[in-house]
Amino acid sequence: MHVLVATVVHHPEDARILHRQIRALLDAGHRVTYVAPFADCGVTPWQELAPVNVPRASGRRRTASLRAARAVLARLAPQSDVLLLHDPELLLALPRTRPATVWDVHEDAAAALLTKPWLPRPLRRPLGPVVRGMERRAEQRMHLLLAEEGYRERFALDHPVVPNTTYVPERPERSPGTDRVVYLGHLSAARGAGELVEMGRLLRPHGVRVEIIGAADPGIRPMLRDAHREEAVEWYGFVPNDQALRMISGALAGVCLLQDTPNYRSSLPTKVVEYMAHGLPVVSTPNPAAVSLVNGRPEGDCGTVVPFGDASAAADAVLQLRSDAMLRERFSAAGHSIARSAFHWPLQADPFVRQLEEWAGVERGPRLPLQSSTPVGDAHEREVAPAALHNHGAGAEPARRMPL
Which of 56, 117, 118, 190 has its Cα between 20 and 30 A from that of 296? Predict the structure, then answer.
């Protein structure tokens, strides 16, 4: 099976897209052509892929990216067995001639509009019904995969769910330490960036540093850079998921300080599962899905829930963990047990691949050699030359200081 995977919004090394779904397709012997903003993100694609570079859609700059994506999809979709889309924006770039088409629904797009800093505030609520209408039309025109059970109620039809799980080792590499807490994931005001910085300032006098691993919205980058320079936090910028998971190992706790916004009320924070998978106690705000994991499982609690917007309570929870080794170990063991039994990605990988095979009308066969896609004339619509992908553009994240 030849799968054409496309994103213009997500980082090409997005954990769900690359490290889980594409990895599962390659391991099952399928060919993957990956359309993504490699150059804009300074990424060298995997050799197993047939990569095609497009500009990244960012903020209000989306027209050129969608135009390039439309041309790429029109050329490559007829040569594919499945077209797998990862952005609602790409619903506007669908070619007329295309194979079985799948939209992987990552988030509640209408609710997410309320927290988009690049979108003028007066337009955020009025655009919600427009997005809902696009979703209703999409489920009549293509197949949908949902990242959350809570997304089902938005749609009239029944669609399979592929949860945002992770790879869970048989046992954590290291026990929780005492001198650092970690945040893993994209940063925005709604994701608690301000609270993380304040938490760093509160913990620094106690010898505990806050390490932040992830890219950030443009509007909060100056705050993070300033906090990084004053050593209130250590901000590493974007780090590929496999490397980032090694970095969080052995931390005192993993932190998730989402604010109380509609988009997060029905979403399971993947970072919480990743913390649990690597034996980290969790400090989280009371997002309902997070609470059900942290304090609502029969295996026992695996962390502490603190009020929304309360950096002081989060810092106090960390200090309590540092002073109580037995509590750390109990939270660590319970979290890992929950993650291993219920959130191990290989439990989802095979059903995901088989669902795409069913929609494509193909049977699983032996692994086939990859065939590179043919370059076209547009500079934005060509195969990626790996040697050209190492230069980061303006707005690159601060230089990473890797922890020892």
Answer: 190
